[in-house]
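Memo to structure team: turn this sequence into structure tokens by end of day. - J.P.
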Amino acid sequence: MATSTFYDVEKVGAWSDLECHLKPVDISDAALQNLLDYACSPSGGVDCAPINPGGDHYPCTLYECTDYAVSTYYANHKPKFEWQVDQTCFFSGLAYATPPRPYHFMLLAGKGELNATDMSTNVMSKKDSAVQGQTLSYTIKNLTLTFNEADFTHFSLWIGASATGALAQLRVHYDFDGDGTWDRNETFGGTAVTVTPDYFIYSDAGKAPTGAAGNYADLKNGAVKIELVSRFAQGTDFITLLEATQQSPSWVTIPYHA
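Reply from structure team:
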């Protein structure tokens, strides 16, 4: 079992620091495309180069690309008054204002805690691998955070496989009080994995876990554990999870704020 920690990249401020994101609900591709087209149009004014080929956030799923465009639009039109927040972050009722996602953890393979400087590299040189039945495990402890009931766990992982027939599945565990017992356990839908040297994004695509045991609660000196499970037809084959870089960020966001 390989183990690393996470890096907390932001802190939460006042209402003026709110961000705008797509709601964590199923949204049709047509609706997403309409929002994306508007935000990237001259009327929307968003520079969408980062989510097009060659951009820092490409490739991305339609949900992720649209969320980027919505978030950027809001940042470009920051309201001057609190009552304007919901008007600016509306997008046909498909978006909502939320505190900055403070616990947006960048996964770093085999290296311990991620430093901010590590995010400056675009070289996909470091990775963790797991053979059939193995689990890549990443844990952070000593978290005291408030649950955001309007959200749920999100993730986007760059993974690849050594052979065809590979499957991967993400599990997220919450220990709310740090007593060593995992109080909430989430399982997300598994995915077939592309054979390397090609990698692809395995993400939640804006959907809730396919399975969950235990209710959310505030974290009080608690812990979060992320597990990527490798499943193969052949026991010697393996999946690979790339480390976080600007070009290919592997990340997990939990629904909490400070």
